[in-house]
Design a protein that fits this description.
By secondary structure, the chain is of the alpha+beta class. The chain has two domains: 53 residues; 115 residues, Ctag/Cox11 (Ctag/Cox11 (Pfam 04442)), CATH 2.60.370.10. 29% of the residues lie in helices and 34% in strands. It contains two helices and nine strands; from the N terminus they run αβββββββββα. Strands 3-1-9-5-7 form a five-stranded mixed beta sheet. It has a four-stranded antiparallel beta sheet with strand order 2-4-8-6, with no helix packed on it. The N and C termini lie far apart (79 Å). The model has no long low-confidence stretch (mean pLDDT 84).
């Protein structure tokens, strides 16, 4: 074999390796774009999954009517309250009671304390979540500070009411609910 033939064989091998490398790069790029698209699709897919299974923990954003015909005095459900502030909101925000016992169907009133510790007026918005997520459909808020935005002047404090009941249809195996609120600063969104 002469030098020209060897060079031709080497070029053919390089060309073949380049074609294989290009195929691998194309496949990897397809995988990357597919993963990126799947990431965007996860949000609506998660919402659909949660709607079907009831596992999201989201509570209603509107007031429930109290239309319970009979309170289940045979059962006791523990309702726990947790609160936190989102990063950057200089408020104290806490439940005035950490836990109560209720009979399904019984109306209860609890209060949360909030104080704006900053030197500027801030508008807060509380976002609720119930755990376990399946129980969210059975936690009925009749009146809630989370339905509206809460404007507080600098150093102002307030007690905010939550009136609720636990639906008597709550599955028997659920004996404890945790209602969690996260408070966000929405001042910039409201003023815009």
């Amino acid at each position: 074999m002469n030098e020209g033939d060897e060079l031709q064989n080497l070029n053919n091998k390089n060309s073949s390796v380049t074609k294989q490398n290009n195929k691998v790069v194309k496949k990897l790029m397809l995988i990357v774009f597919g993963m990126f698209g799947f990431g965007f699709a996860l949000v609506p897919l998660y919402d659909v999954f949660c709607d079907i299974t009831g596992l999201n923990g989201k509570t209603s954003t509107t007031a429930a009517a109290y239309n319970v015909e009979q309170i289940d005095t045979e059962r006791v459900v523990t309702v726990q309250f947790i609160s936190r502030t989102a990063q950057g909101i200089p408020w104290i925000f806490e439940p005035m009671v950490r836990e109560i016992k209720v009979h399904p169907g019984e109306r209860k009133l609890v209060k949360f304390y909030a104080k704006n510790e900053s030197s500027r007026d801030i508008i807060g918005q509380a976002v609720p979540s119930v755990s376990p997520g399946l129980a969210a459909a059975y936690f009925q808020k009749i009146e809630c500070f989370c339905f509206t935005q809460q404007p507080l002047k600098a150093n102002e404090e307030v007690e905010m009411a939550l009136q609720f009941y636990v639906d008597p249809e709550l599955p028997e195996d659920i004996s404890t609910l945790t209602l969690s609120y996260t408070l966000y600063d929405v001042t910039g969104k409201v003023e815009s």
